[in-house]
Design goal:
Elements lengths: L3 H8 L12 E6 L6 E9 L2 E10 L2 H14 L4 H6 L2 H7 L8 H21 L4
Antiparallel strand pairs: 1-2, 2-3
Helix pairs in contact: 1-2, 2-4, 2-5, 4-5
This protein binds FE2/S2 (inorganic) cluster.
């Protein structure tokens, strides 16, 4: 069902866990499959210094969250908000059609975490 790249990332996920002293946290879930994804970040001067994920879900969700967190570390908040699930899918060299929503979860979790940060610092 999954290509080699997805399986490789799933077996050796990067950025798993929780960022110490995080100042942004986003948790999202998919009602249909019941999977949950949480992303924590440390944001300094508008730059995402670190990001980690915890995913209670399928292989595609783990691979998507690992890839997405890797893609936003070092980026500005503005650039991270532009990350789409399509870019995550491209990075993973494709996902089966019924697994597209797993990558959407990663995009949503990043947005939720940044939203949380903006509320904390009062810019929202
Ligand atoms: Fe729902 Fe993968 S099956 S996140």
């Amino acid at each position: 069902m999954y290509n080699e790249k997805v399986m490789e990332v799933f077996k050796n996920p990067q950025h798993m866990g929780e960022v110490e002293n995080y100042n942004a946290i986003g948790t999202v879930g998919n009602e249909t499959c019941g999977d949950i994804m949480q992303i924590t970040m440390r944001i300094e001067n508008g730059i995402i210094e670190d990001a980690k994920f915890k995913t209670f879900g399928c292989a595609a969700a783990v691979a998507s969250s690992s890839t997405a967190t890797g893609m936003i570390i070092g980026k500005s908040i503005e650039d991270a908000l532009k990350l789409t699930n399509k870019e995550v899918i491209t990075e993973l060299e494709g996902l089966p059609p019924q697994k597209i929503h797993c990558s959407v979860l990663a995009e949503d979790a990043i947005r939720a975490a940044i939203d949380d940060y903006q509320k904390r610092v009062g810019s929202k």
